[in-house]
Structures are given as structure tokens and as C-alpha cells.
Amino acid sequence: MKKIGILFGRERSFPMAFIECVNSRNIYDITAKPVHIDKVIQGAAVEYDVIIDRISHDVPFYRSWLKNAAICGTAVINNPFWESADEKFFNNCLAVQIGVPVPKTVMLPSYELPADTSPESFANLAWPLDWENIFEYVGFPAYMKPYAGGGWKHVYKLHNSADFFQIHKETGQLVMLLQEEIVYEAYYRCYCIGGKYVHIMPYEPRNPHHLRYKCDFNPSPDLRRQMEDIVIRLNQFLGYDFNSVELAIRDGVPYAIDFCNPVPDADPHHIGDDNFEWVVDTAATYAVERAIVHEAGHDNLTWGTFTRRSVNREPLGILKGEKLEQGE
After folding, report:
1. Closest Cα to residue 104, out of 250, 244, 280?
2. In the CATH hierarchy, which fold is given to the domain comprising 2-85?
3. What pLDDT was estimated at residue 311?
4. Residue 140 in 3-state DSSP?
């Protein structure tokens, strides 16, 4: 019997619907259920062939447990090793290399010294930074937000350098990004599952949270194809099995704003019934696909194109506009 587990926290709607969806298909020798942990022994395999992870980003204990499961052969969605290493600034750097438009972005050291450091720890860092050239490159208005994390926490809109210096003082030990504002005519949030299944949802981040999916942006067929290509390209290079990509459309060009969302919102009260049905059904389809090809005792993780090309010392970049084939 092949077992698919789902690891979750307070969330209930998506996990329970996912389990029901998999089991209702009555696929011989495949079953889904909540993950159950009663002991953690080093190097010991767990009972699940596939695990969908919805909570380890907030629980270090779960993250380490998933890594142990992965090295013993479980296919973890998403790869816990890559997800532990990834952050938003790196994602933007990668996007530049593979020809995906992104806002102009710089990374800032934390305003306060990290714990257990002193000024001597930063002997290699110029201070003050070259603020004049930084502000000229990014421009104002601009957004300041953490280089890692999500959920629209600690995100600030800045209108000038005075705003910047005032707000930066308030960010404490957070490492922040300063990012160009993209004034958009349309905005979309896109689920990507398995690096191949894409669902494009009109999204308005300026609306109250419960109304963000209630907007009437309607992409042309050509724009939809562009967005699908960008979403697939980013997720295949990053190696995410389950992610969402936010795209802002400026002058007809999709700019990738945020694409480090490996536990994207899947609450039907937020995303709506149609989007919820798609994400549940597609996640179930993909988990079953992974269970079918699972090989006990082997590495069953997804390693993105960036990682694989790095190991093989292959060139990273691809020409802008080049189609990335599925599974490359």
C-alpha cells in the first residue's frame, strides 16, 4: 500500500479536502491520511511514500523530521532542503539570470546588529552604504520588505529617502529588501503544482484580504501564455512542487513580484470555491503521480534546474524567451 501523508497545523479546509479527494478516486494501493508522528529516530524511514508539507516553515521540529524522511526515501512536497535554503533576494537574482522581468531590488543589512555580533563583525561592510546610488537605482516610491518570509508582514511603502531612514530604524534585526514599485494595470496570482500545472487567478493586493480575489482582470491569450511560461520557468529552476507566483502587469509586461510562496493560501474563504476546487484536485493528481513513481530507498525529491546545473557545472542562464521544456 502506497501512503500519501499531509503535514499541517491550524489549517483544516485544504488538508481534509485533499485527503478526501485522493481517497475518493479509489486508486488501487494508494491512500491518503494526516501525518502522525509518535517518535523520531535518526535514519529511520517513515511510513509515507509522499508527504505534502503545509507547516514546517513555522515549526523547526517538523522541518528536521521531513529532512530525515526525505533522506530515507520519502518524496516530500516541497523539498525541505531547498526550501530551507531559499529566500526572496536569491529568487530575484535567479530571475535576472533566466530572463524573467523583476522589479529593481537591493538587499539591506539589518539596522540593528544581529545577536552575538559587534561592529567588528562587519569589518567588510561599508557604512554608510552608497545610499545615493541605491536610491537612484531603485527610485521612489519604493517598497521595503523582508528578504525572507511572507504573509505581507513588515511591508512598507516609502515615498522618499526620509521615509526610508525613518522606517529602516524600525525594522530591528530584520534583513530587508528595497524594491522598485511596479505601477500595474493588472495583477495575477498563479498556483504552480508539479512544475507543470498552472492556474492563473486575478488578484488585487490593494484590496482587503477577503476581497483580493474579487477583481475582473482578464488576460489576453498571449499574456496568459507569457505568464504560464514565466511561472513554469521559475518553478522548474527553483525546484518547487507547490508554489505561487505573483505577477504585476506593467505596459503589457509581466513582472514577477513574489515567487517564494511554497505554502500558498488555499483557504476557500479567501481564494473562492472555484480556485479551491482546482488546487485540491490538482494537488491530489500530482501527489498520486509522485506515489506511483516512488522508489523505496531512493532519492525521491525534486531538485530544480538551478541545483542540477550547478552540480553538473552547466551554464545557468537561458536566453530570454527560450521555452523551457517540461522536466528539463
Report:
1. 250
2. Rossmann fold (3.40.50)
3. 87
4. coil
Cis peptide before 128 (omega within 30 of 0): yes
pLDDT at residue 326, as a whole number: 39
Beta strands in the chain (DSSP E): 2-7, 30-34, 50-53, 75-77, 105-108, 142-146, 156-158, 176-180, 186-193, 197-202, 242-250, 253-258
Across the chain, which has 328 residues, the per-10-residue mean pLDDT values are 97 98 96 97 96 96 98 97 94 96 97 95 95 98 90 88 97 96 97 98 91 93 98 97 98 96 95 97 98 96 94 68 43
Contact 316, 97 (CB under 8 A): yes
Q: Grid coordinates standing for 275?
A: 480556485
Whole-number Å distance between alpha carbons of 103 and 181:
7
Whether 104-180 and 93-100+183-261+302-328 are alike in CATH topology: the answer is no
* CATH 1.20.120.330 holds for 104-180: no
What Å distances lie between residue 36 and 4, 48, 51, 60, 188, CA to CA? Answer: 12, 10, 11, 16, 36
| Contact predicate 245/100, CB 8 Å | no
* 56 CB-contact burial (10 Å; exposed 0-12 / middle 13-18 / buried 19+): buried
**pLDDT value of position 324:** 46
Domain ranges of the chain: 2-85, 93-100+183-261+302-328, 104-180
Neighbouring residues of 181: CB distance < 8 A, sequence distance ≥ 6:
103, 139, 140, 141, 142, 143, 157
The 10 Å Cβ neighbour count of residue 83 is: 21
Fold adopted by 93-100+183-261+302-328? D-amino Acid Aminotransferase; Chain A, domain 1 (3.30.470)
